[in-house]
Structures are given as C-alpha cells and as structure tokens.
Design brief:
By secondary structure, this protein is of the alpha/beta class. It has helices at about 10-20, 25-30, 35-55, 70-80, 90-105, 120-125, 145-160, 175-190, 190-200, 205-225, 230-240; strands spanning about 60-65, 85-90, 110-115, 130-135, 160-170, 245-250, 255-265. It has a seven-stranded mixed sheet with strand order 3-2-1-4-5-7-6, with helices on both faces. Helix 1 (about 10-20) packs across helix 2 (about 25-30), helix 3 runs parallel beside helix 4 and helix 6 (about 120-125) runs parallel beside helix 7 (about 145-160).
C-alpha cells in the first residue's frame, strides 16, 4: 500500500480490512454499518481545518490518542500528505499490532510515530503549543469524567494557538433524544443474532457462538459507557472554559458524532 492508495476510493474497503485483520473488520460492519463513514468524518474535519488554516506549513503535527487498529490513523494521514501523526496508546499488544501493520505500508511509517504511554503522562511531558491538531475516535468516552477533563485540559494547552481539537465519539443528546439513540444502538447489535442464525444454518456453530458472544460483550460495554457518558452540552461548556471556539458538530450516527473546535488565537 502506498500513499497514493489513501486517495483511491477503490482501495478504501481493502485498506480497512488490512488494518483490522479481515474477519474482525467484517464482524464489526455487521452491526455498525456506518463505521467507515463515521471514521471518515474525522479525516474530513482535519482536511477542512488544514485547508483553512495550514496552507503555508510544511508539516502538520497531529496527536492521536488510542490508535486502536489504525483506522483513524489512516484517515488522518489521508487528510493531507504533510500530516505527521504521533499516536499514543498504553496497551502494548495493541500498539505492537498496529505498528506491524503500518510497517508493511511502504512510506507511511515515516509519517507515523507510535508511542507506548499513558495519554495523560505523555501530554504532561510535552511543551505547550506543540501540536497543530489533536484527533481521536472512540477513545475519550472510555475515560472517567475526571480523567477525561484532565486530558482535554492538557490537550488545549499543548495545541498551538489556532490549533484544532477533533473527536469522534459517543456524545449524549439531551433527554429522550439520547434514549432513542441508545435504543437504536442496542437494536443494531441484534444484527449479530441474524448473522449467527445464518451461520448456524450453514453448519458453522463455532462462528454462530462467536457472533452471539460479540453481541453480549458490546451490549455490556454500551451499558458501561452510560456511567461515564458526556453530553453535547457538557462538551460545549468545557470548550468555552478552555478557550476553544468555532465549535462544529458533525453528522450523528446513533450515539456517536464528530466535533471540531479551534483554540482561539492565530496559528504560530
């Protein structure tokens, strides 16, 4: 895979399949059919920011929290050839796996640095005004509210004046809207039962059991996320307190959406 492949729609699905390891990616899409489109929203948000604010820069330094399988990392690199990503994760096995995948992608490893570290500790060690952008998907919602607040406060400090915060994640709407979003998310997991029934009819009982197990795990994780959920209103208030403005909320997919906010002031 070359840098040019990042610009080819025909390579899109194959690229994600490679990053996730094939069957894991296919399993994911059974329930979260919008997954690719949602991931692309983060890259588009970064691309828009770069077009409007970084025309004269040679390099664009992006900090990513929680690369996971590397899908978000690839979207960030796709945004602009000048993007250099520092991706931080505290899970050694996950980081080793994503590093191995990127090592096979010709020149892409030169544009990515994977760092094994706790995100809070990593941020504390960086100089203020270091990064042009912060971007993440499906990571910050896993933090407790207090820890998440600490992390976002530090992100605001480490961004350059005029830098951008981009997060694609679970953000709760108010009242009944959130309940509808939650119910829709849970209903999507029911698609695993349909796939499991199909596998069972085909005689693949092991896959049927696997898919039903995935359904149980994701529903449990979704319920756990409710304890630490952050609302759109809370995030907007936090942005205001931390000096992040020009807030733009993106398209919503059940419980998740993308938000972009810019640190007030001119880019250094």
């Amino acid at each position: 895979m070359t840098d040019n492949d990042l610009e080819k729609n025909s390579a899109y699905d194959a690229r994600f399949s490679e990053a996730l390891g094939g069957s894991e990616y296919e399993d994911l899409l059974i329930a979260i059919e919008y997954y690719n489109e949602f991931q692309a929203e983060t890259g588009k948000a970064l691309q828009k920011y770069i077009a409007e604010h970084c025309q004269d820069q040679d390099n664009i330094k992006v900090l990513e929290a929680g690369p996971g399988t590397g899908i978000t990392t690839l979207e960030l690199l796709k945004a602009d050839p000048r993007v250099k990503v520092t991706s931080v994760d505290n899970e050694p096995k996950m980081l080793d796996a994503v590093k191995a995948r990127f090592a096979k992608m010709e020149s892409l490893p030169e544009r990515v640095e994977f760092v094994l570290a706790d995100i809070l500790g990593y941020l504390e060690a960086q100089e203020d005004g270091t990064f042009d952008a912060f971007a993440s998907v499906y990571t910050l919602h896993n933090f407790t509210p207090a820890f998440r607040r600490q992390v976002i406060e530090l992100i605001a400090k480490k961004l350059k004046q005029g830098g951008v915060f981009i997060n694609g994640d679970k953000y709760a709407e108010e009242g009944e809207l959130h309940q509808k979003d939650y119910a829709s998310e849970i209903a999507n997991y029911g698609k695993f039962d349909i796939a499991a029934d199909k596998a069972e009819r085909a005689g693949d009982t092991a896959r049927a059991a696997h898919l039903r197990k995935i359904k149980e795990e994701w529903i449990a994780h979704c319920a756990e996320d409710e304890k630490n959920k952050i609302t759109v209103e809370e995030q907007n208030k936090m942005f205001e307190e931390l000096g992040l403005g020009d807030v733009e909320w993106g398209k919503r997919f059940d419980l998740v959406t993308t938000v972009k906010a810019i640190k007030k002031g001119k880019t250094e």
